[in-house]
Amino acid sequence: MTKRDILLASSAVALVAMSQPALAQESDEGFGRGDIIVTARKRQESILKVPVVENVLTEEALERFQINDLTDITSKIPGLVSGNAVLAIGEQMSLRGVGSNSLDQGVDQSVSLNVDGLAVTHGLAYRAATFDLAQVEVLKGPQALYFGKNSTAGVISFRSADPGDDLEVKANVGYEFESEEKRAELVISTPVSETVGLRLAGFYGDSKGIFRNRATALPGTGAKDPRYKTIGGGENFFLRGTVLWEPEPDLTVRIKANYAGDRMRQGGLNQLSFCPDGTGSLPGAPPFIHPDDSCQFDKSVYFVDLDPASFPTIRNQGTPFLDLDQYFGTVDISYDVTPEINFTSVTGFYKSIADTMINGTFQGYAAPAFFADNHFTRREWTQEFRLDSDFASPFNFTGGFFYQDGRISNFFTLGGNGALSLPPILTQGTSVIDVESVSGFGQLRYAFSDQLEITGGVRYTDEKRNLGVTQTDPFGLVTGTPGAVYDVALAPGSDKLRSKNWSPEFTITYTPTDDFTLFGAVKQAYKSGSFVIVIPGNPGQDKSFGDEKVFGGEIGMKTRMMDRDLSVDLAGYFYEYKGLQTGVNEPAQNGLPVLRTVNAGTAEVYGIDFEASYRPSSIDGLGFNLAVNWNKTKFTDLNNVPCFGGQLISQGCNQFFNPLPPDGTPRAAYTQGNPGPGAILDPGGSGLLGRYSSQDLSGIPFVRAPEWQVNFGFDYEMPVGDEMRLVFANDNQFSSSYLTILGNPDVRPYTVQPKSLKVDASLTLYGPDDSWNIALIGKNLTDKLRPGYCSSYNSQGASIFYAPIAGGNGRNESGLDEVGCSSAAGRALWVRLGVQF
């Protein structure tokens, strides 16, 4: 099916559905029931009338399946995929296959998060805010106008619960058997006066995790037995306060203040999932991979702790960790200037502080050559002003202004293993990005009639980013003073970026009846370029990458039929991306890992979103739901991607040939980093001499982009006993296979995640007036692990011994890179008891 066929098919189905009769609208809650009220255009509207492809999780659905985090949310939304990366990277989100996969804190997410009006783009923020929510909205496709900043892939909008008119006390306690997680929640909401309401919500959780650490330390290598035999868990706590003040009917002030804390017993999980050369040691190197490691992505991992005697600068006595504190909130003021014009001011604040340390290459027997340690902070203030009209005349408008002031700082330490005769600090330094973004936006809406409306809008953005890098000189080799800190002179002009962008959007909405909407949209959006800051820079290095831009459109229809028992939504879309920001791993240089972000030349995404729900009037309490995302992604132009370790010319490593030095040049001068016998490296850092260094990956699909994702299930509610009710719910998600690493799947089929099916089920008994409930909840009962982030690296040689060489017709002793993948949620079995007054 071609892209043109997709849009034509969507239109044909919509036109056929136009023959359905008009019926009165009604309000209901749950998966796709009735008219759900959404805020996709920053005003309350029926989801049926909004010209946006959107999936919604209501408060009822969030409670039914004990949705505690973003992984739980992705299992309910087809097309939404997440992966958790190491250190302070956080969640990496993809929507319709478009997302960030860079192992770097300087990259903004292509899928942005909006929490009560606060726009945030960093992956760590996704760990917070998924508690006491009134609704979650997932808006698919580029969003330029309504959520503070441009988003090139979509927006996940969290709207937390507000105080009500009556006193409410709600408490839940739960226990999860697989990870031995204990969780307690408390919500108190009360009116303080006739105009002021207060709501306090908090939870505490503690879990051991689902991954069994079976590592044993090899003596004399700097390793020690792991402190925790089960990892992936830790302590989590959260507190939110809400003040709602309505001094008069036309003025509302809403204040949200949040704190989230995480104390995780691992700085990130990157389990070996493929060891092409086995688990044995290389010549002259200790065995870094545990001999019992099956090198499969399962629940058995091998990570040793690090002995401070060999790593004298290490923290936490050598046990990897992640400590994360987040403070954020909004002040939202809504004022009706006149009955037809509303003024809104949203002031936002966000700050995160993350301290994290990992076993550098996740070794499970001998200690790694180095550890990686981050102290990461991100702070930003945002301010948005907005005017929105609701005239009786055909013309209406929205206009406003947005400002962001932010700072991103990363203090990074790569500490060496003294047992391998490495210095205690290999590299250490701080990278700071200052961000200032100013944008103005406006939209005009013209209603030709009650049935037909067109809109045209645009956002103009002027964003500046500056990078400063300071390096520590631990041995005085550069400055002559041990421990001195000096500024790193990067490539001229590469430490400053400025983006100016116009992002227009046009929509047409046709609603011939109250139960049918046909819409079309043409959109453009962009995301600013930034800087790679995961590792300090070298003099003369260019650490910048450019803007990501998208242009395209979609056409769809939304309808309610059969006396509103059946709802059907359908949309087709096509978008072209330029400069898509993509993370790549380069071969290690001088034993140190090299990570960077590149801009793909062009890429395209097209597909179909379908959603339906059926609640037969003849069977009270029964409902069925189905949601499908068919999605095709392709890099149409992606050149100069570094080859993976051990990739041959015949496997596509055939770009950018580095010739051998002239005859008579001492070849010993070109040997660096012990890459193996016969390897000759360019002292300028451009790669192996006499070999190719790069590959052309044009034509491959995106990472984390399954072609098919299907959600289907049902829920049934029935009365039991004396004014009680029993609710049984089931939801399933099928995902086709997808790439986990940027590369040719024909060359490395082991980097493809197989198709899988996740099954969720819950059984909840509610007491009279819902005063109490007891629930049994099973999530991912099929126990499918889906890695969201994978990387290839020389685990067998701990990145310093015999680096696998690429770009020739043969390989050295290291053979091929190993592959490691980040953790994914496995099966969860919950029992929960709740009370409510």
Brief sketch in words of this structure:
By secondary structure, the chain is mainly beta. β35 (581-589) and β36 (592-599) form a beta hairpin.
Task: Please specify the SSE layout and strand pairing.
Blueprint: H1 3-17, E1 37-38, E2 45-46, E3 54-58, H2 59-64, H3 70-74, E4 80-85, E5 90-95, E6 98-99, E7 111-115, E8 118-120, E9 133-140, E10 154-160, E11 168-176, E12 181-191, E13 196-207, E14 211-213, E15 223-224, E16 230-231, E17 234-248, E18 251-264, E19 270-274, E20 300-301, E21 305-306, E22 321-338, E23 341-359, E24 370-389, E25 395-416, E26 427-447, E27 452-473, E28 484-487, E29 496-513, E30 516-527, E31 530-531, E32 544-545, E33 548-561, E34 566-578, E35 581-589, E36 592-599, E37 602-614, E38 622-637, E39 641-642, E40 655-658, E41 691-695, E42 708-720, E43 724-735, E44 738-739, E45 752-753, E46 756-766, E47 772-779, E48 790-793, E49 818-822, E50 828-836
Parallel strand pairs: 7-10, 14-20
Antiparallel strand pairs: 1-2, 3-9, 4-5, 5-6, 7-8, 9-10, 11-12, 11-50, 12-13, 13-17, 14-16, 15-21, 17-18, 18-22, 19-49, 22-23, 23-24, 24-25, 25-26, 26-27, 27-28, 27-29, 29-30, 30-33, 31-32, 33-34, 34-37, 35-36, 37-38, 38-42, 39-41, 40-41, 42-43, 43-46, 44-45, 46-47, 47-50, 48-49
Walk me through what this model shows.
The protein has 837 residues and is mainly beta. 3% of the residues lie in helices and 52% in strands. The protein contains 3 helices and 50 strands. The strands form 11 sheets. It has a 22-stranded antiparallel barrel. A 5-stranded mixed beta sheet has the order 3-9-10-7-8. It has a 3-stranded antiparallel beta sheet with strand order 4-5-6. The protein is globular and about 85 Å long. The relative contact order is 0.14.
